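Appendix B. Raw example, untouched.
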Amino acid sequence: MDIISKPWGQEELVEINERYMVKRLTMNKGHRCSLQYHRQKKETVYMLSGVLNVYLGETIESLDLIEMHPGDSLTIKPGQIHRMEGRETSVYLEASTPELDDVVRLQDDYKRTS
């Protein structure tokens, strides 16, 4: 299993093939990923532990706050703007279509670009 260190935590690539991808992600408390969207990638998040804030919407101005707890799941469609933020250190699974590099960053606390 490939473990990829991120400024907000880490990703563990569990499986990637031509049909789907599965990652186990750890989001550290007080950190958040980019405000982003995907052109093609569709993903479903399933919470394992912790509390995660998810900001989700069609535009930056219309983001809804969804608080996720263990056992909660959420599907993010292509084009939906989203960001995950750790209220607590959180571990979650992400199952998605296999477009690994399909990310358009709109804002990023760590000065990364798409």
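End of appendix B.
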